[in-house]
Specification:
Elements (H helix, E strand, L loop, with lengths): L13 H13 L4 E9 L2 E8 L4 E6 L2 H10 L3 E3 L5 H6 L6 H6 L16
Parallel strand pairs: 1-4
Antiparallel strand pairs: 1-2, 2-3
Length: 116
């Protein structure tokens, strides 16, 4: 009796790979990717372009996210949000407001570093 412990291989969705490749070509020619589970059955691939701009794509699971990173050109899988990676992130003007929702319209909170 043998047991097969190999993980099933996932295929990268072509539309996601195309979107990642377009992001990479637009933002400096290379990017780092951080894989983050965000919900049951969903993983966010957060991209940090060479110019520091953030981008993301959401796929159904971790094997699919890894397949996307492997299939995309010039994308390196980062271990997490380490000091080197976070120090190059420069969100586009207005990005914090888009992501903050109702909090962005408050007047008593300070502005983001890149909005001053």
């Amino acid at each position: 009796m043998s047991t097969d412990t190999a993980q099933p291989t996932a295929t990268a969705p072509e539309r996601v790979v195309k979107a990642v490749d377009e992001f990479v070509s637009t933002h400096g020619g290379s990017a780092n990717a951080v894989l983050q589970p965000v919900a049951v059955g969903r993983v966010r691939i957060t991209l940090v372009g060479q110019d520091g701009v953030l981008g993301d794509q959401v796929v159904r699971d971790l094997p699919t996210a890894r397949a996307v990173v492997d299939a995309a050109a010039n994308v390196t899988l980062a271990e997490g949000w380490g000091r080197e990676l976070t120090s190059v992130v420069t969100p586009a003007p207005g990005h914090w407001k888009k992501m903050a929702g109702w909090v962005a319209h408050q007047t008593r909170f300070p502005k983001a570093r890149n909005e001053r």
